Amino acid sequence: MSARPPSRPPFDPYDPLGLDDLLTPEDLAVRDTVRDWAADRVLPQIADWYERGELPVIRELARELGSIGALGMPLTGYGCAGASAVQYGLACLELEAADSGVRSLVSVQGSLAMYAIHRYGSAAQKERWLPSMAAGEVIGCFGLTEPDHGSDPAAMRTHAKRAGSDWVLSGRKMWITNGSVAGVAVVWAQTDDGVRGFLVPADTPGFSAPEIRHKWSLRASVTSELVLDGVRLPADAVLPEATGLGGPLSCLNHARYGIVWGAMGAARSCFESALEYAKSREQFGRPIAGFQLTQAKLADMAVELHKGILLAHHLGQRMDAGRLRPEQVSFGKLNNVREAIEICRTARTILGANGISLEYPVMRHATNLESVLTYEGTVEMHQLVLGKALTGLDAFRG
What we know:
15% strand; AcylCoA_DH/ox_N; FAD; Butyryl-CoA Dehydrogenase, subunit A, domain 3; Butyryl-Coa Dehydrogenase, subunit A, domain 1
C-alpha cells in the first residue's frame, strides 16, 4: 500500500507562500516580541503623533526598545543582542508595519551610529558609548548628508582641522534622524587624510541640532540639522579604524538592509488594511472584494508583497553567511521600496475616500515611503549601482 501524502495546510491569505516555514522558532519569537511591542506602544497613538508631527515619547520608546533587545540587534557584546541578520530584518519589518519613523529610530541608532562605533571605534569608545546606546539610555545620530551634498558625499564641505592634539570641526549636516535628541553624533568630515568619522557628544560647545519642521513625510520622527561651529574635540574622538568613504558607506549598506525588510512592513500593513476593508465594504449589494477588479488588485499586491519578503529573507541569509554584497542590498532596496509604494497606492484606491483618513494606515505609510524611497540612496543611485555591476562601466561621473 502506498504511503498517504502529507496533508496540505489551509491557504493563509496573510502568508500565501507559507514563508513562516522558513523561520526558526527563535526567529518567530523575535518577530512576535517586536510585533506585540509595536501593537501595544505605537499603533494606538501613531495617528495622533503623525498628525501632530512629532514623536513626543521618543526617549521612553528608545529605552523600551533597548529593553527588548531591538537596538544594535546584530551586534555582539556591550549589551547588544547578537541576533541574526534575519531576526534583525524581521524586527525592522514589524517596526515599519507600525510606522517608518519608529523603524528609522531603530535603524539610525543601531545600523548607523552603533554600527559605526562597533566596527570602527576604539575599545574605549565602544565601552563608553555602546552599552548605554544598546539600553536606549543614549540616543545616537549619524551625520553624513549635507544641505548641498546627498548622493555625492565625497564632495562634503564639513571639515576637521588639527589644532595641536585636538580636532576642530566646522560644517553642517542635514536631514539627520534623531539629531536633536541624540546624546552623541557620529559626524563624517573632510580632513587632510581623507574622510574621517568623529564622535561628538551633544553637549560639546559649538554643536547644535535644530529640529526640522513642516515635513509631510516621516512626521512621527525627529529630523534635524546638525550645526558644527568650531567644535573642538580631543584626539580620541576620531574613529581610529575608518579612513575614507568606505567607513560611512559600509554603515549605510547595513542600514539599507533593514530598509529592504522595513518597506515590506509598510506594504503589509496597507495590504491587510485593504483586504479587510474590501471584505466589509459593500457596494451594489455585495462586498467589493467580490468584484474582479478588486480581486485583481489584491492578487497583484499579495504577489509583490510576498516576493519582496522572500527577497529580504534571501538577503538576510546571505548576510548571516557573510556573502552579502552591497550591490545585492541595492537590488533589494530598489525593488522593495518601489513595490511597497505601489502597494500603498493600490490600497488607497480600494479604500476610496477612506484611504486618505488617518483612521486607516494607508496614506500615512504612503507618505512615509516617499522619504524611504530617497534616503539611504535614491532610486537613481541604486539603479546606477546595479548598472555598474551589470556592465562594468561607471556612469556616476562623466
